[in-house]
Write a structure and sequence with these properties.
There is one protein chain. By secondary structure, the chain is mostly helical.
């Protein structure tokens, strides 16, 4: 590819690259990552409790564990150091072995989980150049709506995965032999468009200004692919980081893993918002 073709793309990407190098972007990404750390476990509890106690659907519950393994790494075999995904799965299974989530508790846990949208709104507002944030009450109303919307999308994705897993488990022959691979493939096929739609809703509804859907739809698709690629980068890099995390953070290594993954993911999400806002300023829609 010639420099003449690269230069226009670099001129458009340069402001976003500079934005990602600013301290402000890192502060927002770290605040979002900390909120993810606080919200992730309650959200998983609600999802699994819904499958276990409301639907009584074991395959959907297992699909939730598959999703956690896909995000943070699954089981690596006997004798291997546990991945963050395996650690989370083991603790969730142990928790449900001793406790039961009540309906009222599910709503309280969802209220805790929507805390991620508070720093995210501030960060998206700054990326769009919005100087005034919503009040805390308005933010919580929008956040609660988004957590239900994103949670509903996650439910749809996991239900499709569960139905495919049931079909695979009932199959014999070659399909039954590669059941694990097929289950993971079906999950990715269902989860990727769902994550893109969730990103679209966040980009569209969370900033405290009017955002044109036609502007952010392509960006949500690209950011969704970038976050999917980040999973594989993490899976490749984690064996090298595992010993370092275990030595320096000991029992907190899994929390550090969640924060680091969320921090990088937040930077990608903010980059998409900044790219869109910068393009909007140069070519506004009427």
């Amino acid at each position: 590819m010639s420099l003449e073709r690269v230069r226009p793309w670099w001129s458009r990407a340069k402001p976003t690259v500079h934005y990602l190098m600013e301290t402000e972007a890192h502060v927002y990404a770290l605040a979002i990552a900390a909120s993810v750390l606080l919200a992730f476990f309650p959200f998983c509890l609600v999802m699994i409790a819904f499958f276990r106690n409301v639907l009584h659907w074991h395959a959907a519950e297992e699909a939730m564990y598959l999703a956690i393994g896909d995000l943070f790494g699954g089981r690596w075999g006997a004798g291997a150091t546990r991945s963050a995904g395996q650690f989370i799965e083991d603790n969730l299974r142990a928790w449900f072995g001793m406790n039961r989530v009540q309906v009222t508790s599910m709503f309280l846990l969802l209220f805790t989980a929507n805390g991620i949208f508070e720093p995210l709104e501030v960060a998206l507002n700054r990326a769009w150049g919005v100087t005034k944030n919503r009040t805390y009450l308005k933010n919580q109303i929008i956040s609660l709506g988004l957590i239900f919307a994103c949670g509903g999308l996650a439910l749809i994705s996991l239900m499709f995965t569960a139905m495919n897993a049931q079909w695979i488990s009932a199959s014999s022959g070659f399909i039954g032999q590669i059941g694990g691979v097929l289950a993971s493939l079906f999950f990715k096929l269902a989860a990727l468009p769902v994550s893109m739609l969730a990103l679209f809703l966040v980009y569209w509804l969370l900033p405290n200004r009017k955002v044109y859907p036609q502007r952010i739809a392509p960006v949500a698709i690209i950011v969704g692919f970038c976050l999917e690629a980040l999973k594989y980068v993490y899976l490749l890099a984690y064996p090298m980081l595992r010993a370092k995390f275990e030595h320096e953070y000991s029992a907190f290594q899994y929390s550090v893993t969640i924060v680091l993954w969320s921090f990088l993911g937040a930077l990608i999400v903010l980059a998409g918002a900044h790219w869109t806002a910068n393009h909007e300023r140069k070519d506004p829609l009427s």
